[in-house]
Amino acid sequence: MSEEPREIEVETQPRVVAPEQRPPATPRLSAWWLVVAVGAVALVVLAVGQLRWAVILVASGLWLGAAIRAVVPETVAGGLVVRSRGFDVLVLVALGAAVLVVGLALRRT
């Protein structure tokens, strides 16, 4: 028993597929630059020799990032958006507190 070969239907018109909507490759970093500016000022203060003030500035910068992430929409927060809003805020507040506690516990020799 042999089966007869079947004819295969081939589409002659190509299918048009709509392009996938993707987020931009580089998000706007507008609010992120405020946190970077505070960090840069902290580095300058550290270079001058004021460790305590530099630590306070770094912690303040992290808390500023947490406040921005908590209040500002994701389209403006840009580089501060990593995970969910609550997780990002929690991590930034915890890092700011850790930097402050460890930095203020250091003794200068």
Structural overview:
With 109 residues, the chain is mainly α. The protein has a domain of 74 residues. 58% of the residues lie in helices and 0% in strands. The longest helix has 21 residues. It is elongated. The model has no long low-confidence stretch (mean pLDDT 87).
Descriptive labels:
single chain; 109 residues; mainly alpha
Topology:
Blueprint lengths: L31 H17 L2 H21 L2 H4 L7 H21 L4
Q: In one word, what is the shape?
A: elongated
User: Total helix count?
Assistant: 4
Derived from helix and strand composition plus strand pairing, the structural class reads mainly alpha
> Rg, please?
26 Å
Give the gist of this structure.
The protein is an all-alpha fold and 109 residues long.
